Amino acid sequence: MKEKAKRNLKKLTFPTVTFLLALFISGIVLAVMGYSPLKAYRLIFLGTFKTTSTMGNALANSIPLMLAGLAVSLAGKAGILNLGVEGQLYIGGMLGTVCALFLPVQNRILMLFLVLAVSMLGGMLWGGIVGVLKAKFKTNEVVVALMLNYVAILFTSYLAAGPLKDPDAAVNQTAKIPENARFVRLIPRTQITAAIFIAVIVSVLIWFVFQYTVVGYKLRSVGSNAKASLANGIQCGRYLILSMCLSGAVAGLIGSTEIMGKYYRFTEGFSNDIGFTGVAIAALAGYNPFAVVLVSILFGILNAGSLTLGREMGVSSKMFMVMQGIIVLFVATPYLLELFVAWRRKKERGKS
User: Fold this and answer.
1) Is residue 115 one of the residues assigned to a domain?
2) Is 115 in contact with 81 (CB distance < 8 Å)?
3) Cβ 279 vs Cβ 88: under 8 Å
4) Of 254, 272, 267, the residue nearest 321 (C-alpha)
């Protein structure tokens, strides 16, 4: 038990130190810009818990980030970096919107279920494309996923600006989805909805699958050592495809939950880079689903706090993006050092 506790403590050390370093560097940036770092962080963290409304909005900001981090983590466990979450959530959001607008279903529970299911199916198919091309043709999943992001975003923008555009709207967006396709808000005057329960349930399911099922074991095995898995009879290609399909399904949920809980319609560019933020969250959480939930809440607080900084101190809301970039840099540094050391060793062996 002591050894397990030590391992868990060691796993927590890296993300904690990374986050504190990011806060320190961000504080230096704020100081150079002429702002007080201590006042800024006090506004961010204390301001978030000042009222029920601010707490609710911070949690609401964390919901799509949780799902994005879980989507990236799910694929990451199998050894694939899913940079296509952004495109998958757009496809899921658009299909969910179409489902809500055109299905003649009056029952609220059935409608909510159908919209979520269709969104997951859309994300699953979009993510599956990346998995199939990786497994069958050995294509680079990062390049394919990034290119598919553009296809998804531009295609859904075309639909929102053309065939599905609300004729009374000044911007590119669809008509509002019906009342029975919307989540009920849990706290008045906030954007917190039942979507938070969906995100938590998804995290528990992912943890359970990887810890207690054969499929989860094989996915982890493929991710840790594909050659050894192949030697043991595991069909690596099949599980690569499965991991991307599951990851895409979770990403598809982001689009539908955002539209059903916040916007009530598909609007061009509604995501604001949620998918890419999910990569930072998953990396900082070490692909642990429960850690993803905690890190997402922290990012939600920072995101909400950045708006407070804009109102109280005049600091640009983009400061959150600066902090996020610093976190990614610190997370990536150990990996880059490992690559450099491996390259040096290989070069030295070649000389000898």
Assistant:
1) yes
2) no
3) no
4) 272
175 Ramachandran zone, left/alpha/beta (phi>0; psi -120 to 50): beta
Q: Which domain holds residue 209?
A: 57-332
Reported as a single tens digit per residue, the pLDDT across 27-83 is 888 888 888 888 888 887 777 777 788 888 889 999 999 999 999 999 999 989 999
d(CA 108, CA 111): 5
Q: With CA atoms as reference, report the closest residue to 272 among 240, 246, 306, 227.
A: 306
Q: Is residue 185 part of a domain?
A: yes
36: helix, coil or strand?
coil
Among the listed residues 297, 287, 352, 246, the one whose alpha carbon sits nearest the alpha carbon of residue 66: 297
Q: Is residue 289 part of a domain?
A: yes
For 183, how many CA atoms within 13 A lie in the half-sphere containing its CB? Answer: 25
The amino acid at residue 4 is K
Question: Quick one: CA torsion of 229, 230, 235, 237, rounded to 10 degrees?
Answer: 100
CB 244 within 8 A of CB 87: no
Give pTM, 2 decimals. 0.89
**Structural domain count of the chain:** 1
Q: What phi-psi label fits residue 105: left (phi over 0), alpha (psi between -120 and 50 degrees) or beta?
A: beta
Q: Does residue 1 belong to any structural domain of this protein?
A: no
Give the whole-angstrom CA distance, residue 70 versus residue 90: 17
Rounded to 5°, the CA angle 202-205-210 comes to 125
Residue-wise pLDDT for 170-214, tens only, equals 899 999 999 999 998 988 888 899 999 999 999 999 999 999 999
Judge contact between 64 and 253, C-beta under 8 A. Answer: no
- The C-alpha angle 74, 75, 81, rounded to 5 degrees, equals 135
Q: Residue 101 maps to which CATH number? A: 1.10.3470
Of 299, 302, 204, 196, give the one whose Cα is nearest residue 257. Answer: 196
